[in-house]
Amino acid sequence: MKKILFVLVCLCLTSCNIDDDPTIYNLDISVLENLNNGVPPSNIVQIVGVEAMFGLEFAGGFIFHYEEEDGSLIVATDYSQFGNFAWGDVFNLDTSVEIGSGDDNTQLIIQGNLADNSLEGIEFGSDNYSFKIVSDLNYNGFDDWFIPSRDSMSSIYENIHSKGLGNFDENIIYWSSTKIGYNPYVMGFNFDSWGGEPFLGSCASQNGLMIARKVLYLN
Q1: Is the pTM value of this prediction over 0.85?
Q2: Which residue, of 150, 175, 185, 189, has the fewest CB within 10 Å?
Q3: What is the pLDDT of residue 219?
């Protein structure tokens, strides 16, 4: 009899612990509330699909990408309310187009600005340029921001802006962190004019800032 009671108590405790565990997906609350409770994105994807997370305001920005390999998210937000900013030094460099490469791209461009680019390019002459500003930025409670890559910009447009979500400005051009040689890719979010397609711009221009950060999880 004592053994039966012990088993029943253990089962009850186990059930209660499962019900009270905020990291287990709860169908009675929103996807955002589940994320805020610590439910891993991989669990959310299994239950309601990845589209349910796109456009949610979370971890300092709006979710636009889920990485299956490590279960991480990437969020982005507008930073153009503080004005348009210069690219920095003009020099020859190729950076990645791939989604999620913006952090590496940003650091490569900063490293390139540290070199003497006066012979084969143009020296900007100060640290008040887009990539350094974003790398040093503490915004919305986070300090690991970067400028997204070309393909990330397309994903932000498709997964957030085209659905009427996010906070992105249709009246400006945004920098991306992808460049081919001397020419960077830029992006406009106006449906009628630029249509969400990245195009090659000029390092001599001043453009708005879109900032992104990765939200890491362990699967």
Answers
A1: yes
A2: 185
A3: 60
